[in-house]
Amino acid sequence: MADTGLAAKVAAAFPNKVLESYTLHGNETVVIRRDDAREVFQTLRDDPAFAFNMLIDLTAVDFLGREPRFEVVYHLYSLSLNHRLRVKIRVPEDDATVPSVSSLWKGANWLEREVWDMFGIRFTHHPDLRRILMYEEFRGHPLRKDYPVNKRQPLVEERDPIANPWDKK
Question: Are strands 27-32 and 70-78 parallel, antiparallel or unpaired?
Fold first, then answer.
């Protein structure tokens, strides 16, 4: 993948909102402020110059020992313009929240739930933020680098999902 100048174009469109932009191994990346996320993502989706109508993936990275500790990473794709962009938001451990983009891209609903479940990063204004991979009584977030892998989880009674659904205790 060649450098298309897309990261620089995004940085120019948001001069005070993009903290840094770079291209590495053909992947164009911008880092934005958490407070500007909603506005930036709305523009990236709706502006015909960008037209990012597809959220390919949303995940997080834990940089234990660094501050801010987390990065939430969005992979966007434009079907009409055939270009990709990686957008990162740095998130501190003591306030691990990010605005939800599930109202912009419906696929973000489950992806944000997965990041919440595995990393403990909350998505504000998410319509249904609850565990998606681990059971409700699970304690902790297993993809955090300081998660104790030898930790025993509380035992829960076996349930018949038809007679006793998980969401109705």
Answer: unpaired
